[in-house]
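job 3f2a | input accepted
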Amino acid sequence: MAFELPALPYDYEALQPYMSKETLEYHHDKHHKAYVDNGNKLAAEAGMGDLSVEEVVKQSFGKNAGLFNNAAQHYNHIHFWKWMKKGGGGNKLPGALQKAVDADLGGYDKFKADFVAAGTTQFGSGWAWLSVKDGKLAISKTPNGENPLVHGASPILGVDVWEHSYYIDYRNARPKYLEAFVDSLINWDYVLELYEKAKA
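job 3f2a | predicted structure (200 res):
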């Protein structure tokens, strides 16, 4: 099925001051749109135009770098916009998620420290992730557009550490951006929704 650029689930001003209108306009309207346009072209050329984005990601990994990069980034960004909301973030997690974070990751404070560290130490472009793998939560990082889908895991939270995600607002202060993401932007309800699907 053809990739489509989703509308943002909030106004361009909604995430300020943690993510600016200008960042969202460039990131969503230009960068994500380019992944969609290029991904559709490359998927059609590869005979994968009728597949879901998840299937394109899995089937192109390690075989068709151009298609994989665009399809994976499209998948990542579909969820990235939903992983944020106005008034989000903080340590008040839904009950089932809090229990899993306590059991698998050593509690919220350790989750936050390890998640921020994963994003900070990802050299160059990439993502930091919270995923369900083998029934348990795990934190990881990946380069470029790579994501946990191709490593046998189900991503339930991700943060984009490509410079276009934060440079307008934070310049080179990636850790400050990551702290703001965790403290003030995460949509824990959407994380819970994906967690429950991954555990089903």
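job 3f2a | The chain has two domains: 19-81, 93-197.
job 3f2a | closed
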